[in-house]
Structures are given as structure tokens and as C-alpha cells.
Design goal:
This protein has 274 residues and is an alpha/beta fold. Helix content is 42%, strand content 19%. The chain has helices at residues 14-23, 68-74, 77-97, 110-114, 118-129, 142-147, 150-161, 193-197, 203-219, 231-239, 256-265; strands at residues 30-39, 44-55, 61-62, 103-107, 136-141, 165-171, 188-191, 222-225, 244-245. The longest helix is centred in the N-terminal third of the chain and has 21 residues, at 77-97.
């Protein structure tokens, strides 16, 4: 019988798991994995996205979809998000000290973006780790960026004065008009993996990508395709001049030590970082 996947919503012992989650940071149960981003035209290693995982006591490793919403509801997301940012910057600085120069992307919740301390959290992380701000990418959902109105724009502008780049995550052409984000100073648009998954079956989706690329060029935006799983998807995106790709075709998320090995084996290192 297949093992039932852990879930904080339907778990038979969810109260015990909730309790464990409240102590997970103090018990050092969180850790980061990193998924490479590849420049499609040159096949160069361009960066990594830091992804949080939770090593539970009894249910093994749990992905963020199982616990992020609970962290937001309980008010822990700020503290855990700050830990993830600090750790990603520290790891990025360690890679750069080895001579590697590539971007490190970190996901952030709407609660972090709305926090009055978030800009200082980013500033402190950069200062403590001496990580190059030009190579830090802060990712936000489109909902996060649009929810706060003028206050969000102000926060994003303050972040950009630090030298970091801003990315909108999980963007779906045709559903989410990019024009709504023109008021926000973003640098990178990441296409949603579900959209990429259907691109081989839908000529209309290919045309939407073409329109996005043209608009991206006019706004000086980089376009990243998430969730590339096969050669056909890569070729369709490459023909349409998508800049960067991420997905299991290139690599699954790996712990830092495995990324070191990946870099050693990679044929072309760091053409143009994100």
C-alpha cells in the first residue's frame, strides 16, 4: 500500500503536527534546497532558487505547500521567512567566495512584503553575509505585488535602492495581464509551471509567450520559464526567445553540497546571471 502523503490539512494527527511546526525553527528542522536556473540560448548556469523544506519528526521531509499557509495564519511566516532569506544569502556568499557568480532567488510571502521591518530584514541579511545585492532576486506572487497598492510600490522601490532585483512569480499569460504590473518596478517575470506544462499542446499558449516576450523587451524585463520538464517545451520556449528556464529537465532541487557537485560537472558556467 502506498504511503499516505503528509498534510497539515487532513493529517490524522494534525494537532500534533501543528504543535511541532510551532517549534520547527527553534529545533532547526527547516532547511533549504536550491533549483538551478539555466540560460536557454547558451545552456549556461545562471542562478538558483532557494526553496524551503521541513524535516518533520515522524513524517519525513515536507514541502512548503503543506505548511506555509499555517505559518502565515499563526504569524510565524515573518520569522521563518527572515531565516530563509538569511540562510540563502549566506549560502550565496559561500558560493561566490568559491569564485562562482550567479543569482540566488528567494520566495517571499505577502505578509513579509507588508511588514514594516521587511526592507531592514533584507538590508541586514545583505550586510551580515556580504552577499552582492545585485545577485539577490526577491520573488513575490502577483497577488502580493498588487494587493498593497501605493504602499507596495514604495516598499519595492526601497528594496531596489538596495540593489536587489524583483521578480513576479507564477505568472500566467492570458489570465494575468502583465500591463497591471507596469506600475511596479519589477525586473523578472517567472512563467507559471502549469502554463509551461500545457505549452506543447496549445498553439495559443505559444502565441501568448511571443506577446509576453515582446512586451518584456519593451519594459526591459527578463523572462524565466518554470517547470520545464522535456526537450519539446524547452525548444518551443527557446525559439520564442525566453531567456531562462528552470525545471526537472535541467535539475531537481538539490541541497547546497549537491549544487557544488552540479557546478563542477556543468559544461558551461555562468554566462549571464539573472
Amino acid at each position: 500500500m502506498a504511503k499516505e502523503p503528509p498534510s497539515l490539512v487532513n493529517h490524522r494527527d494534525d494537532e500534533l503536527l501543528f504543535e511541532e511546526l510551532s517549534h520547527a525553527l527553534a529545533r532547526d528542522q527547516f532547511f533549504l534546497v536550491y533549483q538551478p536556473t539555466i540560460e536557454l540560448q547558451s545552456n549556461a548556469f545562471a542562478g538558483v532558487e532557494a526553496l524551503i523544506r521541513w524535516r518533520t519528526t515522524n513524517d519525513g521531509v515536507v514541502g512548503p505547500e503543506m505548511f506555509i499557509s499555517e505559518l502565515e495564519c499563526s504569524g510565524q511566516i515573518g520569522e521563518v521567512g527572515k531565516w530563509a532569506l538569511d540562510r540563502a544569502c549566506q549560502q550565496g556568499a559561500e558560493w561566490h567566495a568559491k569564485g562562482y557568480r550567479f543569482a540566488v532567488s528567494v520566495n517571499n510571502s505577502v505578509k513579509q512584503l507588508e511588514s514594516t521591518t521587511f526592507v531592514d530584514d533584507v538590508k541586514n541579511a545583505l550586510h551580515m553575509t556580504r552577499f552582492d545585492p545585485a545577485l539577490l532576486v526577491l520573488e513575490f506572487s502577483q497577488e502580493s505585488l498588487l494587493r498593497g497598492g501605493a504602499s507596495t510600490v514604495t516598499t519595492i522601490e526601497e528594496l531596489k535602492t538596495l540593489g536587489v532585483k524583483i521578480a513576479v512569480d507564477d505568472f500566467t499569460p492570458g489570465v494575468s495581464p502583465l500591463s497591471t504590473l507596469q506600475q511596479i518596478p519589477i525586473d523578472i517575470v517567472k512563467l507559471d509551471r502549469n502554463f509551461i506544462n500545457g505549452i506543447s499542446k496549445s498553439p495559443q499558449d505559444v502565441e501568448l509567450v511571443q506577446s509576453l516576450v515582446q512586451l518584456g523587451k519593451s519594459l526591459n524585463l527578463l523572462i524565466v520559464a518554470s517547470g520545464i520538464e522535456d526537450i519539446d517545451q524547452r525548444q518551443r520556449l527557446e525559439v520564442k526567445e525566453i531567456h531562462f528556464g528552470q525545471g526537472f529537465l535541467f535539475s531537481a532541487p538539490r541541497e547546497a553540497e549537491q549544487i557544488d557537485k552540479f557546478l563542477e560537472d556543468f559544461a558551461i558556467f555562468s554566462g549571464r546571471p539573472l
